[in-house]
Amino acid sequence: MSINNNDEAGVSPTRTEPNHLRRAGIIWFVLSVIGIALAIPLLPLILPVGASALESSDNFSILLLTALAVPVAMFVFVGLGYSMIVFRVKERPVEDAVPLKPRPGLQIGWMGITGALCLFLVIYGLLAFYQEAVASPSDPVVVQVTGQQWLWTFHYPQYGASSKGQVLELPVNRPVEFQVTSKDVLHGFAIRALGVRVDANPGQITTTPIVTPNRIGSYTVVCVELCGLYHSYMWSAVNVVSASSFNSWIVSQGGHT
To answer: Rounded to two decimals, what is the model's pTM?
Structure first.
Protein backbone atom coordinates (compact mmCIF):
# COMPACT_ATOMS: atom_id res chain seq x y z
CA MET A 1 0.00 0.00 0.00
CA SER A 2 1.49 3.28 -1.14
CA ILE A 3 1.35 6.37 0.96
CA ASN A 4 1.37 9.92 -0.49
CA ASN A 5 4.07 11.78 1.38
CA ASN A 6 2.38 15.13 0.79
CA ASP A 7 -0.93 13.88 2.20
CA GLU A 8 0.86 12.28 5.16
CA ALA A 9 2.70 15.49 5.96
CA GLY A 10 -0.44 17.57 5.54
CA VAL A 11 1.07 19.51 2.62
CA SER A 12 -1.16 20.29 -0.37
CA PRO A 13 0.08 19.25 -3.82
CA THR A 14 2.15 21.79 -5.69
CA ARG A 15 0.01 24.07 -7.89
CA THR A 16 1.19 24.45 -11.46
CA GLU A 17 1.44 28.07 -12.66
CA PRO A 18 -0.71 28.63 -15.78
CA ASN A 19 0.79 29.81 -19.04
CA HIS A 20 -0.20 33.47 -18.77
CA LEU A 21 1.18 34.41 -22.18
CA ARG A 22 -0.91 31.75 -23.92
CA ARG A 23 -4.01 32.66 -21.93
CA ALA A 24 -3.66 36.39 -22.67
CA GLY A 25 -3.00 35.57 -26.33
CA ILE A 26 -6.25 33.60 -26.60
CA ILE A 27 -8.20 36.45 -24.97
CA TRP A 28 -6.55 38.95 -27.32
CA PHE A 29 -7.41 36.84 -30.38
CA VAL A 30 -11.05 36.37 -29.40
CA LEU A 31 -11.59 40.07 -28.60
CA SER A 32 -9.84 41.12 -31.82
CA VAL A 33 -12.10 38.89 -33.91
CA ILE A 34 -15.18 40.21 -32.12
CA GLY A 35 -14.03 43.82 -32.51
CA ILE A 36 -13.37 43.46 -36.24
CA ALA A 37 -16.66 41.61 -36.74
CA LEU A 38 -18.51 44.49 -35.07
CA ALA A 39 -16.57 47.28 -36.79
CA ILE A 40 -17.14 46.07 -40.36
CA PRO A 41 -20.99 46.24 -40.30
CA LEU A 42 -21.32 49.16 -37.84
CA LEU A 43 -18.86 51.67 -39.34
CA PRO A 44 -20.81 52.14 -42.61
CA LEU A 45 -23.82 53.11 -40.48
CA ILE A 46 -21.79 55.87 -38.80
CA LEU A 47 -19.87 57.21 -41.80
CA PRO A 48 -21.66 59.61 -44.17
CA VAL A 49 -22.93 58.32 -47.48
CA GLY A 50 -20.32 58.95 -50.13
CA ALA A 51 -21.32 61.33 -52.92
CA SER A 52 -18.15 60.78 -54.96
CA ALA A 53 -15.67 58.02 -55.73
CA LEU A 54 -13.10 59.91 -53.65
CA GLU A 55 -15.35 59.85 -50.59
CA SER A 56 -16.14 56.15 -51.08
CA SER A 57 -12.39 55.53 -51.14
CA ASP A 58 -11.99 57.54 -47.93
CA ASN A 59 -14.72 55.52 -46.21
CA PHE A 60 -13.05 52.27 -47.28
CA SER A 61 -9.71 53.55 -45.94
CA ILE A 62 -11.32 54.37 -42.58
CA LEU A 63 -12.85 50.89 -42.46
CA LEU A 64 -9.51 49.26 -43.33
CA LEU A 65 -7.53 51.31 -40.80
CA THR A 66 -10.10 50.56 -38.09
CA ALA A 67 -9.87 46.82 -38.80
CA LEU A 68 -6.08 47.05 -38.51
CA ALA A 69 -6.24 49.17 -35.37
CA VAL A 70 -8.55 46.82 -33.45
CA PRO A 71 -5.92 44.08 -32.84
CA VAL A 72 -3.35 46.70 -31.83
CA ALA A 73 -5.78 48.29 -29.38
CA MET A 74 -6.79 44.91 -27.99
CA PHE A 75 -3.11 44.04 -27.49
CA VAL A 76 -2.73 47.07 -25.23
CA PHE A 77 -6.05 46.68 -23.40
CA VAL A 78 -5.71 42.92 -22.82
CA GLY A 79 -2.13 43.26 -21.61
CA LEU A 80 -3.09 46.03 -19.20
CA GLY A 81 -6.32 44.43 -18.00
CA TYR A 82 -4.85 40.93 -17.62
CA SER A 83 -1.95 42.26 -15.57
CA MET A 84 -4.22 44.30 -13.30
CA ILE A 85 -6.58 41.39 -12.63
CA VAL A 86 -4.31 38.33 -12.48
CA PHE A 87 -1.23 39.81 -10.83
CA ARG A 88 -3.00 42.16 -8.45
CA VAL A 89 -2.06 41.84 -4.77
CA LYS A 90 -3.69 43.47 -1.78
CA GLU A 91 -0.57 43.83 0.33
CA ARG A 92 2.32 46.08 -0.48
CA PRO A 93 5.09 44.05 -2.17
CA VAL A 94 8.00 43.27 0.16
CA GLU A 95 10.42 42.08 -2.50
CA ASP A 96 11.25 42.72 -6.12
CA ALA A 97 9.48 40.78 -8.82
CA VAL A 98 11.24 38.10 -10.82
CA PRO A 99 13.40 39.81 -13.48
CA LEU A 100 12.15 39.56 -17.03
CA LYS A 101 14.09 37.23 -19.24
CA PRO A 102 14.88 38.34 -22.79
CA ARG A 103 12.87 36.55 -25.43
CA PRO A 104 14.36 37.24 -28.87
CA GLY A 105 11.47 35.48 -30.58
CA LEU A 106 8.92 37.89 -29.11
CA GLN A 107 11.06 40.92 -29.88
CA ILE A 108 11.67 39.87 -33.49
CA GLY A 109 8.03 38.95 -33.95
CA TRP A 110 6.78 42.27 -32.56
CA MET A 111 9.18 44.27 -34.72
CA GLY A 112 8.31 42.20 -37.77
CA ILE A 113 4.53 42.56 -37.34
CA THR A 114 4.62 46.31 -36.68
CA GLY A 115 7.14 46.85 -39.49
CA ALA A 116 4.98 44.92 -41.97
CA LEU A 117 1.90 46.87 -40.87
CA CYS A 118 3.63 50.23 -41.36
CA LEU A 119 5.04 49.15 -44.74
CA PHE A 120 1.58 48.06 -45.89
CA LEU A 121 0.06 51.42 -44.89
CA VAL A 122 2.81 53.35 -46.68
CA ILE A 123 2.33 51.36 -49.90
CA TYR A 124 -1.45 51.66 -49.65
CA GLY A 125 -1.21 55.44 -49.18
CA LEU A 126 1.24 55.88 -52.06
CA LEU A 127 -0.98 53.88 -54.41
CA ALA A 128 -4.02 55.98 -53.47
CA PHE A 129 -2.02 59.19 -53.94
CA TYR A 130 -0.79 57.99 -57.34
CA GLN A 131 -4.33 57.21 -58.49
CA GLU A 132 -5.41 60.73 -57.55
CA ALA A 133 -2.38 62.31 -59.19
CA VAL A 134 -2.78 60.57 -62.56
CA ALA A 135 -6.52 61.22 -62.73
CA SER A 136 -7.05 64.24 -64.98
CA PRO A 137 -10.63 64.35 -66.29
CA SER A 138 -11.27 66.80 -69.10
CA ASP A 139 -13.46 69.93 -68.86
CA PRO A 140 -13.80 70.19 -65.07
CA VAL A 141 -15.95 72.85 -63.46
CA VAL A 142 -13.56 75.26 -61.76
CA VAL A 143 -14.78 76.78 -58.50
CA GLN A 144 -12.74 79.54 -56.87
CA VAL A 145 -13.35 79.30 -53.13
CA THR A 146 -12.50 82.16 -50.78
CA GLY A 147 -12.69 81.83 -47.03
CA GLN A 148 -12.94 84.75 -44.64
CA GLN A 149 -14.20 85.28 -41.12
CA TRP A 150 -16.73 83.70 -41.12
CA LEU A 151 -18.16 82.70 -44.48
CA TRP A 152 -17.34 81.09 -47.81
CA THR A 153 -17.75 82.72 -51.22
CA PHE A 154 -17.78 80.81 -54.51
CA HIS A 155 -16.90 82.09 -57.98
CA TYR A 156 -17.25 80.19 -61.28
CA PRO A 157 -14.76 81.81 -63.69
CA GLN A 158 -15.82 79.68 -66.68
CA TYR A 159 -19.34 81.03 -66.43
CA GLY A 160 -18.64 84.53 -65.12
CA ALA A 161 -20.84 83.91 -62.12
CA SER A 162 -20.59 84.10 -58.36
CA SER A 163 -22.92 82.52 -55.85
CA LYS A 164 -25.12 85.26 -54.42
CA GLY A 165 -26.18 83.36 -51.33
CA GLN A 166 -22.92 81.62 -50.32
CA VAL A 167 -24.39 78.38 -51.68
CA LEU A 168 -22.13 75.96 -53.55
CA GLU A 169 -23.94 74.51 -56.56
CA LEU A 170 -22.38 71.58 -58.41
CA PRO A 171 -23.50 69.48 -61.40
CA VAL A 172 -23.77 65.74 -60.93
CA ASN A 173 -21.35 63.46 -62.83
CA ARG A 174 -19.17 66.41 -63.84
CA PRO A 175 -15.55 66.74 -62.62
CA VAL A 176 -14.96 69.67 -60.26
CA GLU A 177 -11.73 71.42 -59.31
CA PHE A 178 -11.61 73.72 -56.29
CA GLN A 179 -9.10 76.58 -56.13
CA VAL A 180 -9.05 77.59 -52.48
CA THR A 181 -7.66 80.68 -50.77
CA SER A 182 -8.32 82.93 -47.77
CA LYS A 183 -8.68 86.69 -47.23
CA ASP A 184 -7.59 86.83 -43.61
CA VAL A 185 -6.57 83.82 -41.50
CA LEU A 186 -6.07 80.10 -42.03
CA HIS A 187 -9.31 78.24 -42.75
CA GLY A 188 -10.03 74.62 -43.64
CA PHE A 189 -12.28 73.91 -46.64
CA ALA A 190 -13.97 70.53 -46.29
CA ILE A 191 -16.91 68.75 -47.90
CA ARG A 192 -17.05 65.43 -46.08
CA ALA A 193 -19.55 63.82 -48.44
CA LEU A 194 -17.26 64.47 -51.44
CA GLY A 195 -14.00 63.55 -49.72
CA VAL A 196 -12.64 67.11 -50.14
CA ARG A 197 -10.36 68.62 -47.50
CA VAL A 198 -7.75 71.35 -48.02
CA ASP A 199 -6.36 74.34 -46.12
CA ALA A 200 -7.33 77.84 -47.22
CA ASN A 201 -4.13 79.85 -46.80
CA PRO A 202 -4.07 83.67 -46.92
CA GLY A 203 -2.52 84.96 -50.14
CA GLN A 204 -2.06 81.48 -51.58
CA ILE A 205 -4.21 79.38 -53.94
CA THR A 206 -4.39 75.65 -53.23
CA THR A 207 -5.90 73.36 -55.84
CA THR A 208 -7.71 70.22 -54.70
CA PRO A 209 -7.66 66.88 -56.53
CA ILE A 210 -10.43 66.73 -59.10
CA VAL A 211 -13.58 65.18 -57.66
CA THR A 212 -16.74 64.08 -59.47
CA PRO A 213 -20.03 64.26 -57.50
CA ASN A 214 -22.06 61.19 -58.38
CA ARG A 215 -25.12 61.55 -56.18
CA ILE A 216 -27.75 64.30 -56.35
CA GLY A 217 -28.46 65.71 -52.91
CA SER A 218 -27.76 68.38 -50.30
CA TYR A 219 -24.50 68.39 -48.37
CA THR A 220 -22.41 70.80 -46.32
CA VAL A 221 -19.09 72.60 -46.61
CA VAL A 222 -17.53 73.46 -43.26
CA CYS A 223 -14.38 75.06 -41.89
CA VAL A 224 -12.17 72.51 -40.13
CA GLU A 225 -9.48 74.90 -38.88
CA LEU A 226 -10.14 76.95 -35.74
CA CYS A 227 -10.37 80.46 -37.21
CA GLY A 228 -11.91 82.64 -34.53
CA LEU A 229 -14.99 83.32 -32.47
CA TYR A 230 -17.61 82.15 -34.99
CA HIS A 231 -15.64 79.25 -36.45
CA SER A 232 -18.44 76.76 -35.77
CA TYR A 233 -20.89 78.87 -37.79
CA MET A 234 -18.67 78.95 -40.90
CA TRP A 235 -20.56 76.52 -43.06
CA SER A 236 -22.47 76.66 -46.35
CA ALA A 237 -24.94 74.46 -48.18
CA VAL A 238 -23.73 72.28 -51.06
CA ASN A 239 -26.29 71.28 -53.68
CA VAL A 240 -25.44 68.59 -56.24
CA VAL A 241 -28.01 68.96 -59.02
CA SER A 242 -28.64 67.81 -62.59
CA ALA A 243 -26.82 69.47 -65.49
CA SER A 244 -29.93 71.39 -66.60
CA SER A 245 -30.61 72.65 -63.07
CA PHE A 246 -26.99 73.74 -62.74
CA ASN A 247 -27.15 75.71 -66.00
CA SER A 248 -30.35 77.40 -64.89
CA TRP A 249 -28.78 78.28 -61.55
CA ILE A 250 -25.71 79.76 -63.26
CA VAL A 251 -27.94 82.03 -65.34
CA SER A 252 -29.86 83.08 -62.21
CA GLN A 253 -26.55 84.12 -60.61
CA GLY A 254 -25.77 86.46 -63.51
CA GLY A 255 -23.53 84.08 -65.46
CA HIS A 256 -23.67 82.44 -68.86
CA THR A 257 -23.63 78.81 -70.03
So the answer is: 0.65
